[in-house]
Amino acid sequence: MAEDLNWAVGGEAGDGIDSTGKIFAQALSRAGRHVFTSKDFASRIRGGYTAYKIRTSVDDVQSVVDRLDVLVALTQRTIDENLDELHEGSAVIYDGERSWEAEIPDEMTAVDVPLKSLAEEAGGAIMRNVVALGAACAIANFDVEYLDEALEKRFGGKGSKIVENNKAAARLGEEYVEENYDLDHLGYDLETTDNDYVLLNGNEAIGMGALAAGCRFYAGYPITPATTIMEYLTGRIEEYGGHVVQAEDELSAINMALGGARAGARSMTATSGAGIDLMTETFGLVATSETPMVICDVQRSGPSTGMPTKQEQGDLNMALYGGHGEVPRFVVAPTSITECFWKTIEAFNLAEKYQTPVFLISDLAMSVTEQTFPPEAFDMDAVEIDRGKLVDDDTVDEWLDEGGRFRAHAVTDDGVSPRAIPGTTDGAHMSTGLEHDELGRRTEDQDERVRQVDKRYRKVETAQEREDWEYREFGDPDADSLVISWGSNEGALVEALGYLEEDGIDVRVISVPYIFPRPDLTEEVEAADDVIVVECNATGQFADLIEHDTLTRVKRINKYTGVRFNADELAEEITDQLAAEVPAK
Amino acid sequence: MSSDVRFTDFKSDKQPTWCPGCGDFGTMNGMMKALAETGNDPDNTFVVAGIGCSGKIGTYMHSYALHGVHGRALPVGTGVKMARPDIEVMVAGGDGDGYSIGAGHFVHAVRRNVDMTYVVMDNRIYGLTKGQASPTSRSDFETSTTPEGPKQPPVNPLALALASGASFIAQSFASDALRHQEIVQQAIEHDGFGFVNVFSPCVTFNDVDTYDYFRDNLVDLEEAGHDPSDYEAAKGVILDSEKEYQGVMYQDENSVPYHEQHGVTENMSEIPDGAPEDAMDLVREFY
What is the CATH number of the domain that holds B79? Predict the structure, then answer.
């Protein structure tokens, strides 16, 4: 793999860290470099340490590593928080004129740049972060002109004067470093390519997938880290005749989405675990009334309020089992940002084909990570829409009973009933959370009850037969060591393979995007000498499923610090686990 | 089919299990007649019901319908109407459904002013669970869970609606069939959220707020010459705890419903077979 550069900007929440990092990430992307970003942030509008980190290479990058090469530190805490990632070749940009005394270890290169003064020279102190970006360009031998397009994108709405001032600020930063420091010995030299990349995060990919899939109605209640899906759709969905409504709470949001879906719109809500708790009240109704709906859970650390701005994959069991009684649901967990897009589209198709709610499970790490992709990774021509057994005025007759009543819950061989939406002549029918007969009317008849329960579960059997529930595979398919993961750990695992290979360790990686229904991994597990399941939770919820499916004890790597896996860390953990005994439990 | 729709077309073939004499019979009949009278038919009508005796209404009526979870009927109706502005939406519930477990949604549905009708069958009691205090029960109303009465003032749903910025507030009496139908009809025709609180007596568990009580005490606002466009006059009757009123208390003649405020006019059920034509523009935004 080509040389990578790890860069970060950090400071207090409210210092504009996020937009500063985003500008640099965009500039790198425009220069034809791959980018993978991560954020350390707190749930506060102002105050508290926050950082935006970028890993960049001309090759594909899918993970962060425990190494920081260039750091823009707006506070001492930024330096302290990252000491273990800084190394002898690191450069730390700081403003020596500010009141704090920067304590930077001697072996590192301290680059004192009067950020505020130079920003004032360019037209305003507010541009000090952009001065720092210019300084970073000088250190990395990266042409400052690449910042221009990103600055235009960020500040274009504020007028050309502001844009020009920012461009000037960046150049002042660059010139200051070039004139006052000789940093060639650090050896940073960012190669550029002619490739065009788009830069987006997982939540944007989910939102874009929803639009591509024909989602027209979104109801939600703001919650970290799901809100950015709602914000993405707002202002865009209207272009396609849709609407986003901010509900008064999650109870309302899922019920609004339920109404939209009953009315025939592809409808969605997104929230995080705490919101799923509330939505669970209505989940059973959605499922038993056989309403197609996509419910997105962007997981964060729980339980209760937990660590709202931290990573976790702790909601798997809730998605699988949440709610009283028994009713099927599908659970899909995209494993990468591009998959956030494709799996969202698939979720809408599954929901309508099987008239079943679909949980789309993402997580905080994926929601805030911005990553570069060739635009073809989101090929809209490849998007397929399947609305399932939707009847119209011409076909509704086939599904009327002898009394001319629409059989909305008709018991069929494949378990899927016809679906009539309001406005369809003679399609009027009732749906309810009560157990019901084919017409949707309440029943407590024992035989009818069994027929309806069986019919609903038959949809799962049908889906298992008809759809591909395949896993994604990386590494050496013949390796004796098998590592299984679900959700967003895929990228770090794929990069970990490189480190493991350097150490002569061959590993087969299986990344599972389908939690229910899911691929049967019995053969794969039996073929391996060592099986390790990797996930960001304490108890190994997915590992439990694998053990249940395959009747084999597995090793587990669990991280529940609130921070995602890094590639190098994961390689070490895998090496350790391969040497360890399988726990007896 | 709308030109020759009769109100019986809105009736299902399920026999109601309400107690004989229940106010909900009259409430439902008036709703069906008002729907037919306003040119709707079962195939373009969506009825949402909550939980409680009132919640059974979706089963006894014939239309597109959803019988939802307790207290959340208004959000469901909101979703239906936003997705399908072409569909007539009527939400029905009881005082427990609307003013207790669903009170939060009531406030926000009122202020959102979605163009739908909300009929609350207010019997001032929990009937389906066999007689406990409801949010509109009198403070001295003795029930199995409040042996000495709730000892707290009843919710005034009309005042709650007014304080939430309602554009249409009305009250009717299930037994005054003609007036009830007229009032529901006005709520349907109103451009915005048409709210009707219906006195719908429970003959089994409430021996205080009876048919006789309402017959003896009800003041008809139309007969009294009340002007619903007069906000101050509306406030007066709504906050008057001494009397029981029927009629339209308040109607904002300049009401602009949600879909007009937000430009939500499309039938959202219609989508292309693939991604929208210009969808690659969405990708290019991320350059």
Answer: 3.40.50.970
Mean of all residue pLDDT scores within chain B: 96
- Cα distance between residue A526 and residue A530, in whole Å: 9
Residue numbers of A between 346 and 365 with CB closer than 8 Å to B: none
Question: Which residue range is the domain that position A371 belongs to?
Answer: 200-382
Residue A133 forms part of a structural domain: yes
**CB-CB contact of B86 with B125 (8 Å):** no
Task: Please report the residues numbered 259 through 278 in chain B whose beta carbons come closer than 8 angstroms to any beta carbon of chain A.
Answer: 262-269, 271-276
B66 and A266 within 8 Å at the Cβ level: the answer is no
Check if the interface score ipTM surpasses 0.90: yes
Distances (CA, A) of A463 to A405, A450, A542, B270: 28, 20, 21, 25
- Looking at the complex, report in whole angstroms how far the Cα of residue A436 sits from the nearest Cα belonging to chain B: 11
What letter represents residue A441's amino acid? R
Find residues 46-65 of chain B whose CB sits inside 8 Å of chain A: 46, 48, 58-59, 62-65
Quote the CA–CA distance of B162 and B57 in Å, as a whole number. Answer: 27
Q: What is the pLDDT of residues A196-242, one digit of tens each?
A: 999 999 999 999 999 999 999 999 999 999 999 999 999 999 999 99
Distance, in Å, from the CA atom of A195 to the CA atom of A197, rounded to the nearest integer, reads 6
- Backbone φ and ψ of A457, nearest 5°: -75, -25
Q: What is the mean pLDDT of residues B101-117?
A: 98
Please check whether residue A390 lies inside any domain of the structure: no
User: Can you give the pLDDT at residue A13?
Assistant: 85
Residue range(s) defining the domain that contains residue B159 = 2-284
Q: What is the distance in angstroms between the CA of the first residue and the CA of the last residue of chain B? A: 52
A–B: how many Cβ contacts below 8 A? Answer: 215
Whole-angstrom distance, CA of residue A484 vs CA of residue A502: 21
